[in-house]
Task: structure prediction
Amino acid sequence: MKPTGLASLQNEVQNLEDELNASKYTQEQALQAQKSARAELFEVKKELRMLQVLHREVDEGNAASDP
Result:
């Protein structure tokens, strides 16, 4: 009966190791997705600032040309 108990424990250890490895993989994917999202957010903010400057310049130009 001991070999069955030992085999059961070995199986449980293997299952836990598999779960841990899967968790690490999932965590790595989440970190990569976060990095990508941060990079995209940076680009979007940069574009927004550029558009705000252009909008302000257009408003100033319109204000200067109004009689």
Summary: The mean pLDDT is 90. Residues 18 and 55 are 55 Å apart (CA to CA). The longest helix spans residues 2-65.
